[in-house]
Write a structure and sequence with these properties.
GO terms for molecular function: heme binding; iron ion binding; monooxygenase activity; oxidoreductase activity, acting on paired donors, with incorporation or reduction of molecular oxygen. This is Cytochrome P450 71B7. It comes from Noccaea caerulescens (Alpine penny-cress). InterPro entries: Cyt_P450, Cyt_P450_sf. Belongs to the cytochrome P450 family. The protein has one domain (2-221): Cytochrome P450 (Cytochrome p450). The longest helix is centred in the last third of the chain and has 23 residues, at 152-174. It has helices spanning 2-7, 9-12, 19-24, 38-51, 54-59, 61-80, 87-104, 116-131, 143-150, 152-174, 187-201, 209-221. By secondary structure, it is mainly α. It has twelve helices and no strands. Helix 6 (61-80) packs antiparallel against helix 7 (87-104).
């Protein structure tokens, strides 16, 4: 334990580099799967200072309260009408609604490009993909051929394409000319603002579109 946690800590603190993780994290441009280094430290600092600071989370507290109130209202209506409730689906919808509003500023009940069924489908496909085994992870030189024959590559590319389309729609929605930003901007608004400031200030670390999508991938699929 001492060898791993103290002496060789820096060598052991990164996650294994897997084909699926690399693709879904936009070539390790996120926080969850990126190897330890200067880039990871810069992204972690961004998340702690700008995205998930106590002040920021407190400013978005009203979203959690509104969604919880809506859930209680729906459960009350179901109880009065003696209608059965699928708790697994109901709680998933609650979490998805909070995450999408807090992080992306979208209401999955009213959004044009995604709804709760699409969100559930994307999360389910991602979970299956993470649990699957890619031969390329064990045999890098020849495994890609087996993955292509078995359909693993096609499955991975299809899931990534769906996720990337969703994330791109979120980014495009926030970059619309004349879009009004609320007094409590969502996490994507904050990242877009950071990207614009970095272009002006010339910071050594540049938050790219891949970093942006990698971070919201972590938030969405956590």
């Amino acid at each position: 334990a001492e060898e791993v946690l103290k002496i060789h800590d820096l060598k052991c603190c990164s996650r294994p580099d897997k084909v699926g993780f690399r693709m879904l994290s936009y070539n390790l441009k996120d926080i969850g799967f990126a190897p330890y280094g200067e880039e990871w430290r810069a992204m972690r600092k961004l998340s702690v200072v700008e995205l998930f600071s106590p002040k920021k989370l407190q400013s978005l507290k009203y979203i959690r309260e509104e969604e919880n109130d809506l859930l209680v209202k729906k459960l009350t209506e179901s109880a009065l009408s003696q209608s059965p409730v699928n708790l697994k689906k109901t709680l998933f919808t609650l979490v998805a609604s909070i995450v999408c509003r807090l992080a992306f500023g979208i209401d999955i009940h009213k959004c044009e490009f995604v709804d709760e069924h699409n969100v559930a489908d994307l999360v389910h496909k991602f979970e299956l993909l993470v649990d699957s085994i890619a031969f390329s992870d064990f045999f890098p030189k020849v495994g890609w051929l087996i993955d292509r024959i078995s359909g693993q590559n096609k499955t991975l590319n299809n899931v990534f394409s769906e996720l990337d389309t969703f994330f791109q729609n979120i980014l495009d929605d926030h970059l619309k000319p004349g879009r009004r930003v609320s007094e409590s901007p969502d996490i994507v608004d904050v990242m877009v603002d950071v990207m614009k400031k970095q272009e002006k200030d010339g910071d050594s670390f540049k938050l790219t579109t891949d970093h942006f999508k990698g971070i919201i991938s972590d938030i969405f699929l956590a």
